[in-house]
Design a protein that fits this description.
CATH class of chain A: Alpha Beta
Oligomer: homodimer
Radius of gyration of chain A: 17 Å
Distance between the termini of chain A: 21 Å
Largest interface: A-B, 24 and 24 residues
CATH superfamily of chain A: Divalent-metal-dependent TIM barrel enzymes
Number of strands of chain A: 9
Structural class of chain A: alpha/beta
Order of helices and strands of chain A: HEHHEHEHEHEHHEEEEHH
């Protein structure tokens, strides 16, 4: 997503050129290219698929919408398996129109995971609940903290359900270090994503993630939603990102 | 602030007309009008000043900046006393340029309150730490949750330092109900402010607060930062706000 202006072949090519060993893919460009073809493309390039983004959006109340969401998440698991990644990132979904019941929405996520967890396990895929910054709590993701994500994940085996640790979403939370330790002790850190916080936040607040990275040494994805980066040459942005990653995080 | 397009005399007049019994004032328009004159204006109208907004911005590292901030907060206490309100709202301040040390910034707030708390008490004023939504944690307020605010406030007597409970900033937090209970049990809810959350958030995310209110029955301020409301006739907005308050909160 950091360089979504690149086609999949260009992305794979640029990663190979820059020595980037793995890439997190998003479903839409993979589907547009063809899932099997995308899998062959990255496999032939020796590139690891670190995660597939994203399943989730499991908060609907309407039975038809719920069934459709579950079916879509099973397809996402299938796609992850074909791509050869063991991790599907879940963005849980916001409040349904007219609802203010955050707790009820979180319970519906857990209900859905009771169906999706075993299905994912059968396909060799782990589900990684991603807490999103509280500024997204109403319209995108009712899971706002690692503590909330783990409260849900803990109802399931760690090899079925864990969490995504994304610095952009949790940096402000004084409970985050303890919750990262809790997740690690349970083997539930299924992926780690890096982005810096920049101000002022843009309208809609989605695409303002910065390009400096700092302070962690595990397996890391750099995920930058940023309108300005998307207007630039994708290979240049990828090269810069790789260089800053090497400087600050490696 | 909800109707900042109104002059102080027009605000006082409109409140009287609409039967609004109290008003939270901000320092800038009060200073521009004259503190003593503003105090006389509201007193003569029989209008209570519920709070004065705002002191705070206590996170500077530079000694000169710290001294200036403390002096400014003592002036804010003085102004509150002249206006006849017993509550000064504190917005703690963001990270100093170049710093990423949230914990250190919070400690500097506590250090400052050790000086300001007794000064405020001498003037019959309580300080009310306001946690701001985590989307403001870097540039405006390093205190993001009621739990963090209370962790600081508890170091001081409740009649010196308590908290501001503002629905706009804490609605997403599953710990908020328990923390409101904690604050209430300690006599530290020094003011309560209402605003709804609206999406999409505007650029800069400051001025997007909605006009519906729901679900609380104590002393309440309605505080709506909203560019759209500020372009409209202030008396009309105040009348609407009073009507919706009566409908949803009274």
């Amino acid at each position: 997503m950091t360089v979504r202006q690149l086609s999949l072949p260009d992305l794979v090519d640029a990663c190979r050129e820059l020595g980037v060993p793995g890439v997190g893919l998003w479903r839409e460009p993979v589907q547009a290219y063809g899932v099997e073809a995308a899998a062959k493309l990255v496999r032939d390039a020796g590139l690891a698929v670190t995660t597939l983004c994203r399943g989730g959006f499991l908060t609907a109340i309407d039975p038809g919408e719920r069934a459709a969401a579950l079916a879509d998440n099973r397809r996402a698991v299938d796609e992850a398996a074909v791509l050869g990644t063991d991790t599907l990132v879940l963005v849980s979904g916001g409040l349904p129109a007219g609802s203010k019941d955050l707790r009820g929405a979180r319970e519906r996520i857990a209900d859905a995971l009771a169906e999706l967890g075993p299905y994912a396990e059968e396909h060799g895929v782990k589900l990684a609940i991603e807490p999103l910054h509280p500024m997204f709590a109403s319209d995108r993701c009712v899971v706002s903290t690692l503590a909330q994500a783990l409260d849900i994940a803990e109802r399931f085996p760690a090899h079925q359900v864990g969490v995504t640790v994304d610095t952009y979403h949790i940096w402000w939370d004084d409970q985050a270090p303890a919750q990262i330790a809790r997740a690690g002790a349970q083997g539930r850190i299924h992926t780690f994503q890096l982005a810096d916080w920049t101000t002022p936040l843009p309208e809609g607040v989605l695409n303002g993630r910065g390009q400096e990275a700092a302070g962690y040494t595990g397996p890391i994805e750099v995920e930058l939603f940023n309108d300005a980066l998307w207007t630039r040459d994708g290979r240049e942005v990828l090269a810069e990102t790789a260089a800053r990653f090497a400087e600050h995080a490696a």
